[in-house]
Design goal:
3-stranded antiparallel beta sheet, globular, TIM Barrel, 8-stranded parallel beta sheet
């Protein structure tokens, strides 16, 4: 089994400020000693400050955390240790400050179709028909005189239209850029939600209008063969990846059902255990020993530092994920609200490396 350690970069920022990426690189030898096969840097990119790092402005290292050069040095260090390195790509939506969104909203020629823009009347009709808003209140948000599809949160995060040539070209360039710096794998955030058929909207079934198979194919076309781990898939969806050698389904079924299984019995279904560096498996009602035993049968397993410590030393590690201590709607307070990661690292070194 390859075990991948999630490193939530806002937590590193809370401890190390602009040295966040450099300090993550320093941690790699210890993670190798513990037995990890790789790391996954979550919420790394420059963001707009409204969704824990997933309202992406640009696929460059958030300057709060360090530089692109720091990332390249981390990758080099990891590869010298024979560790894999993964990052996020969020193709469903972007920050309203992203170039695709700005150009579309400002009617720049060639970018008019990058977002889903509808009339006021159509926004009202589609909302009433049951087109879903996953983490916010509005399926369509008003921006100036436009109504724009917003699956996540609000008008700070705008859905991208994957029928747009400009959107496809943008992400092809992102994947090329990541391949050039030798990123080994990519977690695809909201990968099943790229394409939707709003004519099938159902107020009783938020997933009715989604087109997961077409969404997977759309992102694969521009990925350049990089191994992809699609989040937001439940066990029943794993079969969608049977004919996709480089693709896996990260099991996040608790998002859909409120439950997370302790068994992963499909070759393409990969356990994602714990949270963003600081939530224990116990917080999600998982039988830890059973989960570890079952996860060991998978080709991969994604863990985070605090969950690992909780499993091995203390099942009562304090949670510190965004739902506990972050002010999501304040770009300034959002980073300050994060629990620092250095005490967790120190506990790891004291209890797991001595």
């Amino acid at each position: 089994m390859k075990s991948i350690c999630q490193l939530y970069m806002p937590s590193f920022f809370r401890s190390y400020d602009k040295d966040a990426v450099k300090e993550a690189a320093k941690l790699l030898p210890d993670l190798k000693k513990i037995g990890f096969s790789g790391v996954y840097l979550i919420a790394l990119w420059e963001d707009g400050g409204y969704d824990n790092g997933f309202d992406i402005v640009d696929y460059r290292v958030n300057p709060k955390f360090g530089s692109d050069e720091d990332l390249e040095e981390l990758i080099q260090t990891a590869h010298e240790l024979n560790l894999e390195v993964g990052v996020d790509v969020v193709p469903n939506h972007v920050s309203d400050k992203n170039i695709l969104a700005k150009n579309c909203l400002n009617n720049v020629p060639g970018y008019e179709d990058c977002l889903y823009v509808v009339s006021k009347e159509e926004a009202k009709r589609l909302t009433e028909a049951g087109v879903p808003s996953t983490f916010g209140e509005l399926a369509y948000s008003k921006i100036g005189d436009k109504y724009v599809r917003t699956t996540f949160a609000d008008y700070h995060q705008l859905n991208l239209n994957w029928d747009s040539k400009k959107v496809q070209e943008y992400f092809a360039s992102v994947f090329k850029q990541l391949k050039e710096i030798e990123i080994d794998f990519i977690r695809i955030d909201c990968g099943m939600l790229l394409l939707e058929d709003v004519s099938k909207a159902d107020p009783k079934n938020p997933m009715a209008c989604m087109q997961p198979k077409a969404s997977i194919e759309a992102i694969r076309k521009v990925s350049g063969g990089t191994p992809l781990f699609f989040e937001w898939f439940d066990p029943k969806s794993a079969s969608l990846f049977d004919d996709c050698p480089e693709c896996y389904a990260l099991d996040c079924s608790y998002v859909m059902t409120g439950k997370q299984p302790t068994k992963w019995d499909h070759k393409k279904l990969i356990p994602l255990l714990g949270g963003h560096d600081q939530m224990t498996a116990a917080d999600r009602g998982i039988d830890i020993k059973k989960a570890l035993s079952e996860a060991a049968r998978s080709e991969y397993a994604f863990l985070d530092i605090a969950t690992l410590i909780g499993w091995k030393t203390n099942p009562n590690v304090l949670p510190g994920d965004e739902e506990y201590d972050a002010d999501l709607n304040s770009p300034n307070q959002r980073y300050r609200a994060r629990r620092p990661v250095d005490p967790i690292i120190e506990e790891m070194r004291q209890k797991l490396l001595r």
